[in-house]
Design brief:
Helix content: 25-40%
Number of helices: 8
Strand content: under 5%
Structural class: mainly alpha
Number of strands: 2
Largest sheet: 2 strands, antiparallel
Radius of gyration: 18 Å
């Protein structure tokens, strides 16, 4: 589909699932420090949803620009969007090393959420910003969505009555407040900026110690974005297509 149905944004819940790993704090005797014990992960319950596999992106920023230019035609993803996703993957290797995040997951989300920042006819500037702001509908409790009264004084979404999802990866203000990032190191954290949004999405997807190479964790991560199995399957189709396009 060329543009995401508004109903996806309307239904956005952005509620975290239970963490896959349960941490127990045991207090052993009086005056003895607590001991933290993590339970062993069980078998992957849905291996078919594991993140599609593709080669790691280059570590060097200049090399990632060349990498993106070579793959724009085969993937159908704008080169500037690929640069942002590749940058988030590279950053995640250090910041979120156990998560295994790949740009293909971000490409799947970006396609479904905003047609890679081109929703409503917007185009992506070299700076990584859509030519027109992308805003979801008011989260006013109608049309099946949650009611979320304004939480940021309209600073991010321009709405002082209700919150709206913002930017190419559609963050609501409260989620941005927790996971917002400065992916391009320009000193600002902006959900309208592809570099910032891609790294914030990586942080959000990898929350709760998820390993996206496991099917159950990948599915839980995408469900956290939108609690709809149909949404998960759409994102997966786009991620698989992106991975297949680069071999």
């Amino acid at each position: 589909m060329s543009t995401p149905p508004r109903s996806d944004a309307d239904r956005r819940q952005l509620e975290h699932l239970l963490a896959a790993a349960v941490v127990l704090v045991l207090l052993v005797g009086a005056g003895v420090a607590g001991v933290v014990v993590a339970t062993r992960r069980g078998p992957d319950t849905t291996p078919g949803y594991a993140q599609p596999v593709t080669a790691p992106v280059p570590a060097d920023a200049a090399a990632r620009i060349a990498w993106a230019a070579e793959r724009e035609g085969t993937t159908g993803v704008p080169a500037r969007v690929l640069v942002a996703g590749a940058g988030a993957e590279a950053a995640a290797r250090t910041e979120l090393a156990d998560c295994g995040l790949s740009w293909v997951t971000l490409a799947g989300l970006g396609r479904v959420e905003s047609n890679h920042g081109r929703y409503g006819g917007a185009v992506i500037a070299a700076t990584g910003r859509p030519s027109a702001p992308i805003r979801g509908p008011e989260l006013d409790g109608t049309a099946g969505n949650r009611e979320i009264r304004d939480t940021d004084g309209g600073r991010l979404d321009g709405d002082t009555t209700y919150d709206r999802a913002v930017g190419p990866l559609q963050f609501i203000p409260t989620t941005w407040a927790r996971f917002g990032a400065d992916g391009d190191a320009d000193g600002a954290s902006d959900p309208d900026d592809l570099d910032d949004a891609a790294l914030a999405a990586a942080r959000y997807l990898c929350a709760d110690e998820r390993d996206l190479r496991r099917g159950d964790d990948w599915r839980a991560a995408v469900l956290a974005y939108n609690r709809s199995q149909a949404y998960v399957d759409r994102v997966r189709r786009e991620a698989v297509a992106a991975a297949g396009a680069v071999g």
